Each structure stands twice: as structure tokens, then as C-alpha cells.
Amino acid sequence: MVIVMAPEATQADINTVVALVETAGGDAFVSRGVSRTIVGLVGDIEQLGTLNLRGLDGVSDVLRVSVPYKLVSRENHPNRSIITVGGVPIGPGTMTLIAGPCAVETAEQTLQAAQMAQAAGATLLRGGAFKPRTSPYAFQGLGEAGLKILAAVREETGLPVITEVVDAHDVDLVASYADMLQIGTRNMQNFALLQAVGGVGKPVMLKRGMNATIEEWLMAAEYIAQRGNLDIVLCERGIRTFETATRNTLDISAVPVAQRMSHLPVIVDPSHSGGLRELVLPLTRAAIAVGADGLIIDVHPHPESALCDGPQALVDGDVRELAKAVRDLPPLVGRALTQPTGPVSVPAPARPEAIA
Length: 356
Ligand code: PEP
Ligand code: MN
Fold this sequence. Notes:
With 356 residues, the protein is an alpha/beta fold. It contains eleven helices and 15 strands. The strands form three sheets. The chain has an eight-stranded parallel beta barrel, surrounded by seven helices. A four-stranded antiparallel β-sheet has the order 2-3-1-4, with helices on one face. Helix 3 crosses helix 4 (144-157), helix 6 (191-198) packs across helix 7 (214-226) and helix 10 (277-290) runs parallel beside helix 11.
């Protein structure tokens, strides 16, 4: 069982819950997040179920869920969630396009890519400043200088920014610039990192581990939620299979499956799935048709000289087709492309005490 405390719950309210559970022979594990506290209960479920926990002051929800991923499960939360990033919604009813360069290389390249993204209909900008590269000799990203470029491009274009964080120690730094934090496929089970982003109070996009089952992916999301952050978007980005013609195999069925198992939005990354420019548009169309809540796509003004993932980046000449796909296809499945929402939010400075 899991107890979700209300944001206004006091320490005394939490102590009352813990005392009641312990008196009934159970154990209570308190996890304090920025916006709410979660109390996990272990013990005789039947016995604990007889306690009137829901009636206690400061208790917002009591979840008795049979699956191991409790807070992100749909069992107790039948309505699918809408997560808002800098004023832009991601969730049912809409289809949100996130686009931008794989890596931030220069201010000019990032601005040009952001303009391509906007021309395609994107309402959020992607761009990596910390790059988790397979080779230690490959470009590792510009670090904080890259975050500063993203913030400047946000100012110029109005596009809220999503960027990857690869180390728990960098979470506050990245959160102080970004509107949404990205956890990449290679870090899906980096539990210290998941807990750190769970404590920082910014929306998180969690990519599926390339070798992870859907249940393992949801358990990873549970690590973030358990720290009090339920603003999570899942991203299917392809998995490892025996097939070598594509970089990864886009598990298109993961979209409706994860949406049935979890209330969290599910988006698709057709760029890192196929790994090839010519696959991005067909996979984009497939993702919209299958009911994805959004897309995250690499674009680059000069992919031939890109420092990361050039072969999969869409170029200027592809933007018109992408714009057409994201405008025309979502209405066929009961969605509308998310529209810009006006002035961009300026992220609040990260709280130093929020690190796990
Ligand atoms: C990325 O989106 O830049 C990235 C590295 O993706 P993935 O973690 O899916 O490989
Ligand atoms: Mn990439």
C-alpha cells in the first residue's frame, strides 16, 4: 500500500500515519519530495486495510494496487494524466512535437535547429548538453555552456527546453536551466539518478532502457514518483533485438501497452529508434497512428558535420513533410497538434536540498 500525503500535510500528520501503521504491526517508509510526501506501507495488507487511513488529516490518497508499480499504475488512477512542461501539455487529446538537435554544439546551430523545429510544429525544444556516449572518445556535450545556449534559444524562440541529465550530482544544475529533465535509455535503471530527479520538482521524460521490459520501465518511473514527482512522461525509443538493419527496433506496441498499464503519457522517439533519416517520417506516422501522446525528433541544420547522430537528423527539406504529418494525422485519431501557449516559463532556481 502507498499513502500519498497532500501537499499541505504537516509533519504531525505524517507522524500520525506512521504511528497508526506501526501500532497495527506494519512498517512505514516516508519519502519526502518537493511537492508531496509518499509513505510506503509494508505489512499485513488485510490488517493495514482496516485502518481508516483515508480519513486522517493530510492524507490525499491511499493506493491498494496489485501491481508493483503503484503510483504510476492505472489501477488506482483510471484517467490518463496530462503533464505540463513550461505551459505545454503532453497527454490525451493532444499530440506534442518535441524537436531539436541531438546535441547542442554552438549557439548558431541550436538556434537554427530550434527554428526548424518550430517550422515543423514543435512546441518544445530538445538538445543535449550532457551526452551519454557509448565511446569515451566521442563528443560528450558542452555541459553548462550548452545549458546556457539552450536558455538563450528559449528566450529567442519561446520554446521550453528539455535536456538530458546523466549524473545525480548535476540534477540541480540542469534543473536550474531546463523546463523538463530527460533520463536516457542508458540510465533508465540508474536508481540514484531517478531518485534525484524525483526530488527536484521538474517534469521528467523517462526513456525506456534499450534492454528493459515495459514493467521494468514502469518500475523505473515508480522510483521517480516515489520521491514525490508524478510529472513523468514515458518515451519509447526502440529496443535491442536481433535485427541489424535499424539502430534499434521501435516497439510500437509498447505505446498502447504502457498507456493501458500506466496513467502517464507515452511519447515516441522515431530518430533514436530507426537511427536513419529516411525512417523517421514513416515511424512518426506509425507513432501518431498507434496513439502516442507526442514525438521527440532530431533535426539539424548541417547533419553532415553534426557531432552526434547526424545520420538520423531531419534536414530543412524534411521539415515540410514532418509538419504535414503532425498537422494532418492526429485528428484522424482524435487528437490535435499542441499549439504554442504564449510566453515561456522561466524555471525557478533548483533547490539545493532536493538532491537525494
Ligand atoms: C538522446 O535523446 O539524445 C539520446 C541519447 O537518446 P537515447 O537515450 O534514447 O539513446
Ligand atoms: Mn542522439
